[in-house]
Amino acid sequence: MYRILVADAIKPEGLGPLSEASNILLIQKTVEEAANELDQIDAILVRSATKVTEDLMNRMPQLKIIARAGVGVDNIDIPAATKRGIVVVNAPDGNTISTAEHTFAMMASLMRHIPQAYASLKNGEWKRSSYTGTELRSKTLGIVGFGRIGGEIAKRAKVFGMEVIVFDPFLTADRAKKMSVTSLPLDKLLPKADIITVHTPLTNETRGLINKEKLLTCKKGVYVLNCARGGILDEDDLYEMIVKGHVAGAALDVFVEEPPLGHKLLELDNVIATPHLGASTKEAQLNVAVQVAQEVLTYFEGNPVSSSINLPAISKEVFEKVQPFYQLVQQMGSIASQCMKEGIQEISVTYAGESLDFDTAILTKSLISGFFKSRVDASVNEVNALLIAKERGITVGEKISADSLGYSNLISLKVKGDNRELTISGTYIENYGSRIVNLNGFKIDFHPEENLLYIQHTDKPGVIGNVGKILGDHEVNIATMQVGRKEAGGEAIMVLSFDKPLSDNMKQFLKETEEITFMALISL
Ligand SMILES: NC(=O)c1ccc[n+]([C@@H]2O[C@H](COP(=O)([O-])OP(=O)(O)OC[C@H]3O[C@@H](n4cnc5c(N)ncnc54)[C@H](O)[C@@H]3O)[C@@H](O)[C@H]2O)c1
Ligand SMILES: O=C(O)CC[C@@H](O)C(=O)O
C-alpha cells in the first residue's frame, strides 16, 4: 500500500485516478497534522504553500515522489530530492491559460485604475477625473521570459493592438517568428517598453533580474507586472522607483514572502495586488490535480513519468518507445554489477537499431540505477544514478552505433573494472520479451530471470554434467540452462536459472570443479 500525503488544497475531483487505485491510501492532512505518520509516507502532493525542504524530506524516509500541482517548484529543494533519489514532478501547463488571463486582467486593471476606482466608489465617492487611464492599444509590451505563459500573453496582447517585444535567452528565432514577436536582448527591451511583465522561473539568475539599475534604463512612467515569482522584480528597488515617480505603477500577484503582510509596496496607491491568484480558477486547479495524480499513478505502476523536474522530459510517443527497454537495461546493469564485484572505472553503453531511434538518456539512467541498486541500496533510481556514479569517480558514456548485428535493436554494455572488463548485450523482441544475447564475447540467448548463476569454464567433456550433478545432489532444481563457447576446447560459459534463489554455499560446492574459472550468483 502506498501512502500519499495531500498536504495542500488540491482539487479532490482531480485526484480520482489515485483514490480509485486499490494499492493507494490518500491522506488529506497538512505536514503538521501528519507529523506522526511522516515516516510512512511514499508520496507528497503540494501546491505552493508547503515548503518541501531537506529537513522535511529527512523526516520522510520512505518518500519516493514529490508532486507539485502547478508549475513553480521553488518551494521544493530539488538538489536534496535528487540526491535522495526522490522524483519531483509538476503539472507544467495545466494553469498556463489561467495565469496568462490573470496577468492580462492585472494589466488592464493597472492601466485603467480599476481596483482604486472600485474602492473609491464603494467608499461613497464619484471621482471620475482621478481615474483617467491609458489605452493598451499601440503600447509596447515587453515580456521577459517567453515560455508557456509569456507566449499566451503575447497572443492576447496582439489582439489588443499592442506591439510585443520579448527577452528570453533560450528563445529560438523560429519560435519568435512563429509567434510574430520581436526578440531583443534585455538592455534593448527595457528602454522600449511601455509595460513590462516578467514570466521567468525564479532562479539564481532571475532573482533581482529587474532591479533599480535596470528600472532606471526603462522609460519614465513605465508600468511593471510580476505574476510569476516574488523577487524577479526586486521589491525594495521597485518601491523606491515608484516613490520617485520613475515607475508609474505595478501589478503584483506574487511576493518574496507570502503572505506579504504589512508590505510597504501594498501601501502605495499605484500598486495593485492579488494574493497569488494566477492559477486560482476551477479549470486550472482541476487540470493540475489530474496531471499530477496521473504522474504519481504512473510512477507507482513502475513506468517512467513524463513531466519530471529531475529526470529528462519524455513525451507520450517516446514513453511508448522507451517502455520495452526500460526493464531490460536495468537488468543488464544489475547483471554486470553482480558479475563485477570490484572497483569500477568506466561504464559505457551503445545503442543500435531502428527501434532505439529516440533520446536514450532515460535508458542510460535506468541502466546505471540497475547497476548501483545491488551495490548501494534500493534508493538508487534514474534520478540520482548519474550523480552516484560521478561521486564514485565512474565515467559513464553513451554511444549510438549503426551496426545492430542483425537484431532490430541491440543494447551493449561495457564495464571496465580495476582488474577486469565485462561486456553484455541485450535485445527486446516483440511478443517474446528481453533476451541477453552476448555475455563477455560469448554468444548466448537467455531471458534475464530472477535467480541466475553465471559460470565461465574450460570447454571439456563432463563439466556441464558435473555442475548438474552437484546441484542435483543438493536438491537444487535447474529451471533453464543456456551454454555458449567461442571455440571447441577453449573458454565456455553457462547461464542457469532457478525457481528459488541459490544459497551462497552452492558456490563453494561448485568451486570444487576445477574447470570453472569464474562464477557469479545473480539475483534480479
Ligand atoms: N502566479 C501564479 O499563480 C503562477 C501560475 C503559474 C506559473 N507561475 C510562474 O510563472 C512563471 C512562468 O511559468 P511558465 O509556465 O511560462 O514557465 P516556462 O518554463 O514555460 O517559461 C519560463 C521561460 O523563462 C525563460 N527564462 C529562464 N531563465 C531566464 C532568464 N534568465 N531571463 C529570461 N528568460 C528566462 C525560459 O527560457 C522559459 O522560456 C514561473 O515562474 C511560474 O512559477 C505563476
Ligand atoms: O498553487 C498555486 O495556486 C500557485 C501555482 C503557481 O504559482 C505555479 O507556479 O503553478
From TrEMBL:
<protein>
    <recommendedName>
        <fullName>D-3-phosphoglycerate dehydrogenase</fullName>
        <ecNumber>1.1.1.95</ecNumber>
    </recommendedName>
</protein>
<dbReference type="InterPro" id="IPR006139">
    <property type="entry name" value="D-isomer_2_OHA_DH_cat_dom"/>
</dbReference>
<dbReference type="InterPro" id="IPR050857">
    <property type="entry name" value="D-2-hydroxyacid_DH"/>
</dbReference>
<comment type="similarity">
    <text>Belongs to the D-isomer specific 2-hydroxyacid dehydrogenase family.</text>
</comment>
<dbReference type="InterPro" id="IPR036291">
    <property type="entry name" value="NAD(P)-bd_dom_sf"/>
</dbReference>
<dbReference type="InterPro" id="IPR029753">
    <property type="entry name" value="D-isomer_DH_CS"/>
</dbReference>
<dbReference type="Pfam" id="PF00389">
    <property type="entry name" value="2-Hacid_dh"/>
</dbReference>
<feature type="domain" description="ACT">
    <location>
        <begin position="452"/>
        <end position="524"/>
    </location>
</feature>
<dbReference type="InterPro" id="IPR006236">
    <property type="entry name" value="PGDH"/>
</dbReference>
<keyword id="KW-0520">NAD</keyword>
<keyword id="KW-0718">Serine biosynthesis</keyword>
<comment type="pathway">
    <text>Amino-acid biosynthesis; L-serine biosynthesis; L-serine from 3-phospho-D-glycerate: step 1/3.</text>
</comment>
<dbReference type="InterPro" id="IPR029752">
    <property type="entry name" value="D-isomer_DH_CS1"/>
</dbReference>
<dbReference type="Pfam" id="PF01842">
    <property type="entry name" value="ACT"/>
</dbReference>
<dbReference type="InterPro" id="IPR029009">
    <property type="entry name" value="ASB_dom_sf"/>
</dbReference>
<dbReference type="Pfam" id="PF19304">
    <property type="entry name" value="PGDH_inter"/>
</dbReference>
<keyword id="KW-0028">Amino-acid biosynthesis</keyword>
<dbReference type="InterPro" id="IPR006140">
    <property type="entry name" value="D-isomer_DH_NAD-bd"/>
</dbReference>
<dbReference type="Pfam" id="PF02826">
    <property type="entry name" value="2-Hacid_dh_C"/>
</dbReference>
<dbReference type="InterPro" id="IPR002912">
    <property type="entry name" value="ACT_dom"/>
</dbReference>
<dbReference type="InterPro" id="IPR045626">
    <property type="entry name" value="PGDH_ASB_dom"/>
</dbReference>
<dbReference type="InterPro" id="IPR045865">
    <property type="entry name" value="ACT-like_dom_sf"/>
</dbReference>
<keyword id="KW-0560">Oxidoreductase</keyword>
<dbReference type="GO" id="GO:0004617">
    <property type="term" value="F:phosphoglycerate dehydrogenase activity"/>
</dbReference>
<comment type="function">
    <text>Catalyzes the reversible oxidation of 3-phospho-D-glycerate to 3-phosphonooxypyruvate, the first step of the phosphorylated L-serine biosynthesis pathway. Also catalyzes the reversible oxidation of 2-hydroxyglutarate to 2-oxoglutarate.</text>
</comment>
